[in-house]
Specification:
The complex is a heterodimer of chains A (463) and B (176).
Chain A: H1 3-70, H2 74-95, H3 106-123, H4 134-163, H5 168-179, H6 183-189, H7 195-209, H8 236-247, E1 256-263, E2 269-275, E3 284-289, E4 295-300, H9 311-324, E5 330-338, E6 341-350, E7 353-365, E8 371-375, H10 377-382, H11 395-400, E9 407-417, E10 423-433, E11 436-443, E12 449-454, E13 461-462
Chain B: H1 2-26, H2 35-54, H3 61-75, H4 80-94, H5 103-108, H6 114-118, H7 127-138, E1 148-150, E2 165-169, E3 172-175
Helix pairs in contact in B: 3-4, 3-7, 4-7
Classes of the chains: A alpha+beta (463), B mainly alpha (176).
Chain lengths: 463, 176
């Protein structure tokens, strides 16, 4: 072998190796690329489907609202309204699957939510009631017009997506890029470049031009507005004192409390953090309402060890805790234990009537049997001594209103809140059907069934 | 000289073998599909299915498990009230017209939670996140009614300027 031959062989091997490496690398690259494309296409198809469903359901919604406005038969009107409700919920569900979290669509979303609430409330009224009032009919017509506009805009966007082969993936990319953008850049950047985003902005702009109908008293408010707690506004020092007393830290030497923030929650609160003395890791947080100085909730942080206390013992601990803090006449209504703690719900009891709006939750650690949590926002906001009326009908009469297939286990009077957050006096019947427990609420004035609750749905163990 | 050729061939062979092995690993043929945490998840899912059968009252357990996962992936290492606050944000969204009406709808809304977009939500959750999820369901809301939160050290989001500030817990800023 001479020097020349060796060089040639070396070169040959070199080329072969290079070829293998290049081929392998391109295989990996190609594979990665096609996997990525495939995943993107899947996501895109999902988005297309979700969008087409939004288009379809909003279109059907407009049609059903139109039918409801035209029909003279109450039954037909209610059928149309029930269908409209179904289409609205489906449209909302579809919207929630689109990558539009960075696009402002709040008017459109509010509209869908109002239509859902309106159509649901009216379709559930029962055939015994009267037809739509003039005011309700006027709202219905306004909503129909708005739905027709939305349907047209969406259909237009749908066809431009199909014709222009626009992709939702690009909308998603743009919105992620936009979300990561600094505010000053986002502002100067101005209009979005993506046609789909533009189309959605057009829809939203158009929707804001419609006046919002006055729904007062027609549909339940979307959220419970908590009233403010009566009483003078308290300062931070007062809040710290209240928090230290409530947690029992005022008796602990070396424990220091400080207000770490004043929070514009409902109701507004001073947040007190209590640092325990050296050697203890039981740090505490307490929210004390600014007006009235009531404890809304508290936590005492502590590692949870092995269980040594039974839930039944925990209930006694919780009761004593409430008694010591001036929560009188509290009745246990629910209990659940999880991950080494037990949360017990209590409602206020006034002359044997359970007042559900006034409830608190007390959490007891099952390792050392100490209270390490309290939640009482509802109680602190709603609690008062109510002028309770005598029930208009007897318990026996109310019982006649129950489904005869049920086995009644227990009954008592209670105050509950309806969808409009109005208080109602009811008979609560704890019933069983096929080994499942239900709570049935019969209005103590009218004898009508107000509500049926499946006891397990809430995940609470009933007591 | 022939010694040099051998060395060259050896190097190339090693290279090709390494590349091939790496290829197989990344395509999941050697170690399976990120098997370690998948196996763990399967165990957990089986556990939940058993709970479901034993106690029909636990029908919300999938949603609940999801909540705990999000809390764990988003707020692991935060103070306990910060974990409960993340759970409360999920529940506050449920009641709000601008968000889907189910827990899984809220959680899987595209780009709603970083942990879902990145896949961290599928790692086994820390134990305290289950307690935090339960507490959020029982009514605790340390977020003060927040609908959004973000970590200012990780992202500067333009929408932050359009939302009203409520409070900061640990690393998270909560907004409405």
């Amino acid at each position: 072998m001479n020097c020349h031959e060796v060089t040639v062989m070396k070169q040959r091997w070199g080329w072969m190796a290079l070829t293998i490496v290049v081929v392998a690398a391109s295989f990996i690259g190609l594979r990665e690329y096609s996997l990525k494309k495939e995943a993107e296409l899947r996501a895109e198809n999902q988005y297309q489907r979700a969008f087409q469903e939004v288009v379809y359901h909003v279109d059907s919604l407009a049609a059903e609202l139109g039918k409801a406005a035209v029909s003279s038969s109450l039954l037909q009107t209610q059928k149309a309204l029930a269908d409209a409700w179904r289409h609205t919920e489906s449209a909302r569900s579809g919207l929630g699957q689109l990558p539009v979290s960075a696009i402002e669509l709040s008017t459109t979303e509010d509209f869908l939510s109002q239509v859902a609430s309106f159509t649901y409330t009216l379709s559930q009224r029962g055939t015994s009631g009267s037809g739509l009032s003039d005011r309700e009919w006027a709202i219905l017509r306004d909503l129909r017009d708005q739905a027709m506009f939305a349907a047209e805009e969406l259909a237009g966007l749908g066809s431009s997506i199909a014709l222009g082969r626009l992709r939702w993936i690009d909308v998603q990319r743009e919105s992620i890029a936009g979300a990561a953008m600094r505010p000053e850049r986002a502002r100067t950047q101005g209009a979005p470049s993506n046609q789909v985003t533009k189309g959605l902005k057009m829809l939203e702009d158009g929707m804001t031009r419609f006046p919002t109908p006055d729904f007062e008293g027609v549909i339940p408010p979307p959220r419970k507005k908590l009233p403010t707690i009566p009483g003078p506004a308290i300062g931070t020092n007062e809040a710290i004192r209240i928090a230290m007393d409530f947690t029992g830290y005022s008796a602990v030497e070396g424990a220091k409390g400080q207000v770490i923030a004043t929070i514009p929650s409902e109701p507004e609160a001073h947040r007190v953090e209590i640092i325990p003395p050296r050697g203890s890791d039981r740090r505490a947080w307490v929210d004390v309402s600014v007006s009235g100085g009531k404890v809304l909730w508290m936590y005492i942080d502590s590692p949870i060890g092995a269980q040594s206390v039974t839930p039944a013992m925990a209930v006694n601990v919780a009761k004593t805790f409430l008694d010591d803090r001036g929560f009188q006449h509290m009745r246990e209504i629910s209990r659940r234990d999880y991950q080494g703690v037990c949360s017990i719900g209590f409602a206020y009891e006034q002359n044997g009537v359970i007042v559900y709006p006034d409830y608190v939750v007390v959490r007891v650690a099952l390792d050392d049997g100490q209270v390490d949590g309290f939640e009482g926002t509802n109680y602190q906001v709603f609690h008062k001594i109510r002028p309770l009326k005598e029930p208009g009908i007897s318990e026996a009469r109310a019982k006649e209103g129950l489904n005869p297939r049920l086995t009644v286990i227990d009954s008592r009077l209670a105050v509950i809140l309806d969808d409009f957050y109005r208080e109602k006096l009811v008979y609560e019947f704890k019933c069983q059907l096929d080994k499942k427990t239900y709570l049935v609420y019969i209005n103590a004035e009218t004898g009508e069934e107000e509500e049926v609750k499946k006891a397990e749905i809430t995940g609470l163990e009933l007591v | 000289m022939s010694h040099g050729v051998g060395k060259f061939i050896f190097t190339i062979t090693v290279l090709v073998v390494v590349v091939t092995v790496l290829w197989h690993v990344q395509s999941g043929r050697v170690f399976g599909d990120r098997s370690a945490y998948h196996r763990e998840n399967e165990d957990r899912l089986r556990y939940i299915a058993e709970v479901d059968l034993a106690d029909p009252g636990q029908s919300y357990s999938y949603d609940f498990d999801l909540m705990a996962r999000v809390i764990s992936a988003e707020a692991k290492g935060e103070p306990y009230i910060g974990q409960v606050a993340v759970g409360a944000v999920i529940l506050n969204r449920l009641d709000h017209p601008h968000f889907p009406k189910t827990i899984s709808g809220v959680i899987f809304e595209p780009d709603a939670f970083t942990a879902v977009s990145t896949g961290y939500v599928w790692f086994p959750p820390v134990e305290s996140s289950y307690r935090a999820a339960q507490d959020a369901l029982a009514g605790w809301d340390p977020s003060g009614g927040a609908l959004y939160y973000y970590n200012p050290s990780k992202a500067t989001n333009w929408w932050v300027a359009t939302r009203s500030y409520i409070t900061q817990i640990g690393k998270h800023v909560f907004l409405r």
